[in-house]
Design a protein that fits this description.
By secondary structure, this protein is α+β, with helices and mostly antiparallel strands. About 15% of the residues lie in helices and about 45% in strands. The chain contains seven helices and 20 strands. Strand 8 (about 160-165) and strand 9 form a beta hairpin.
Length: about 350
């Protein structure tokens, strides 16, 4: 996934484009069972007018995308680069099957299978994506984001309700979500930048719901990327124990962000090599990598890369006379990286 690319400080739009889309999509699917108050719109229904709140439309988005069968073509735009892909999704005997095929540029195809609701260990660092983070009570989100309706739009020939997710401070980004009015499937999503203009977008251009055959799921390229996640539930169970580890590092984070994942990688039996902590507010997330390898601390030049709203910042930080390579990756404003690096200290 994109984190795999970012940890190596490689942001290659071609080689990672489909995998990055998978991350982007799951970071922008809202699933809400309980949300606090929001704006209300009225839709003309027969025979009476029905009031609908934004949170009412958010309920079940992730479930619809994960559990329904559909196929279609969508566009994915990031920093002025547009990719067009075919997406086929089906559920067979509790197993979720996906096929993504790039329709422009080089032939790229990804096949993925996983039990419904599961997640691989390597994805756990970003498991607070919207689809997973918001499956329960997200009433606390209302203190960080404002949910309102925008003007309804047609996407892929279907009527959609447009929901604005606006941050209440400068430590997170906003979103615009396009939800199919009839099925609850997410037909499009925008991640909004500081000026509230889209910096990352995806839109279905065409979609057929409930019309997927087994033949549709077959690879059409000779060497597709296969992502077998059939054993991911065991991997998650093993990974959950890592989150109980106590990190030797502390730093300041903005209000609303809480630790949701922690991992330590060691060389030998005692020396801590890398500490990895992921924080989320339920919508936005960032991951902090603190590397204690002395060879990594020799590079004094800071690095900063940005792909849409995804930022990678690396600096050498001196703490108690030692130098440490600190990398922050996430879809968050730069202010968070500055806060973390200037406040880093040992417990």
């Amino acid at each position: 996934m994109y984190m795999h690319c970012a940890r190596r400080q490689v942001v290659n739009a071609r080689s990672c484009s489909i995998l990055f889309f998978l991350l982007f999509l799951h970071l922008h699917i809202v699933v809400a069972d309980t949300v606090s108050d929001g704006a209300v719109i009225e839709r003309q229904a027969s025979p009476a007018v029905v009031s609908i709140r934004p949170q009412d439309r958010l309920v079940g988005i992730g479930t619809a995308l994960r559990q329904r069968d559909y196929k279609g073509v969508f566009s994915y735009e990031q920093q002025g680069r547009v990719s067009t892909l075919q997406w086929v999704h089906a559920v067979r005997d509790g197993i979720e099957h996906e096929r993504l095929l790039g329709l422009d540029g080089v032939h790229r195809e990804v096949l993925r299978e996983r039990p419904l609701g599961c997640m691989r260990r390597e994805e756990r660092a970003i498991h607070t994506r919207l689809m997973d983070a918001l499956t329960g009570d997200i009433s606390s989100i209302s203190s960080l984001y404002e949910l309102t309706f925008d003007k309804p739009e047609r996407v892929a020939g279907r009527e959609s309700d447009v929901i604005m997710v606006k941050p209440r401070d400068g430590f997170r980004w906003g979103y615009r979500l396009f939800v199919d009015h009839d099925t609850g499937i997410l037909l499009g999503a925008d991640m909004l930048g500081a000026t509230e203009k889209p910096v990352q977008q995806f839109r279905f251009l065409s979609i057929q719901i409930g019309a997927v055959t087994d033949a549709d799921m077959q690879a059409i390229t000779q060497d597709p990327v296969r992502m077998d996640m059939s054993h991911c539930q065991q991997e998650v169970a093993e990974g959950q124990a890592d989150e109980k580890n106590i990190s030797p590092w502390i730093f300041d984070v903005p209000p609303g962000y809480t630790l949701c994942s922690h991992e330590s990688q060691r060389e030998g039996s005692s020396r801590l090599q890398e500490d990895v902590q992921t924080f989320s507010d339920g919508l936005s997330h960032f991951t902090v990598f603190i590397h204690e390898d002395s060879s990594a601390a020799k590079a004094e030049n800071p690095a900063h890369m940005q792909l849409g709203n995804t930022v990678l910042t690396n600096r050498i930080v001196e703490v108690e006379g030692g130098k440490y390579s600190v990398t922050i990756v996430g879809e968050v404003p730069d202010e968070i990286a500055k806060m973390v690096m200037t406040s880093l200290r040992r417990k």
